[in-house]
Amino acid sequence: MSAASTSTAPTSSPTSSEALPTAEQHGIKEHSDGRFGFVPVQTRSARFKSFDVADFPAVTGREAVWKLSPVAKFTDLTGGVLDGSAYDIDATPHADVDVSWVDRTDARIGTAGAPEERAAANAWSSFETALAITVGGEEAKEITLTRANLGSAPRAAHTIIEARPFSQAVVILQNTGDARLSENIEIIVGESANLTVVTVQEWNADAVQLANHFATIGRDARLKHVVVSLGGGIVRVNPSVHLAGQGSDTELFGLYFADAGQHLEQQVYVNHDAPNSRSRVTYKGALQGAGARTVWIGDVLIGRSAPGTDSYEQNRNLVLTEGTRADSIPNLEIETGDILGAGHASATGRFDDEQLFYLQSRGIGEIEARRLVVRGFLSEIVQHIGSKPLEERLQGAIEDELRGTEGN
């Protein structure tokens, strides 16, 4: 593995408004020629947002949010007509968890975030009813919702996950079968609630999923968000977390394993907008086979209103064969110097020869040694999920993926 690069926040801030740089000092103003009135977006939070698909131009692939995506393969999801009707789900029952369909007038819809790109806006404009998962009760609980075989026609979906104040739960979203899906998931974490949301993508080989998760976290509340992408032809899951309450905390984990011809993408955004908030982002992936492609973009914004922030993000990719590509782009914006710490790291590389040599010197064959290295690399993420049955099943799924590395 290559060495990780890190970035550390400044430790002091200007003492007066006069010390702050102006837009003109950095050339951030309208140009006198070209596109009159155009000023480039200078911060992640300033991106254009709208709930209406008509407010977004057609996707060309040159946009910042689409430039690393195979946009020609899902034009039906970014601009076509989508089926927004309800679909079949299978949910494990629990007395303190309500799972029901609600209409578009539900007061919670639109409170966690808004679309920043056309596919999300198309889904928002198209869904007819939303799936609402409402968690209550202070005792820890676990619920699994399974979607299978949504079909090959373009579809929109909208989901609300609300953890009421002081509640605790693990919510697992299991996805299998066929799909051509654009969806938005809103996650609302109330004061002092502790919520884990795990989304597992084990779609069929030709499935396409474009998902945007919007989360808002209240005072002294905690969200653990885990993305596991193993199946599907094109899977793009973009979590956006707003640390809105003082003392709010989030941990975002991701695990992905891309095979030949598979495109797995995740664009992560953490917005520190309250004092004494904390975030940790850790995504790990493996790639094998010709044309396997992964994309990870991590944006962290520490706003002026977030003194005492503690933040770190990292992405690691393990390349198992030739002909793969992993894009890893960490970004960190800091608007206040009054923080505990902030940094980021990114690394992409092949097997560590020293690790392989160590294992082989103790009588372990090369193929098994390689499998042990990859298993240990990815197991760190699995162990953070907090559901033993799911963790065991995912370890088996990783073993199935690793059988394809033999002989490479």
TrEMBL record:
It holds the Pfam family SUFBD_core. InterPro entries: Fe-S_cluster_assembly_SufBD, SUF_FeS_clus_asmbl_SufBD_core, SUF_FeS_clus_asmbl_SufBD_sf, SUF_FeS_clus_asmbl_SufD. Residues 155-377 form the SUF system FeS cluster assembly SufBD core domain. Residues 1-23 have a biased composition (Low complexity). Residues 1-35 are annotated as: Disordered. GO terms for biological process: iron-sulfur cluster assembly. Belongs to the iron-sulfur cluster assembly SufBD family. This is Fe-S cluster assembly protein SufD. The gene is sufD.
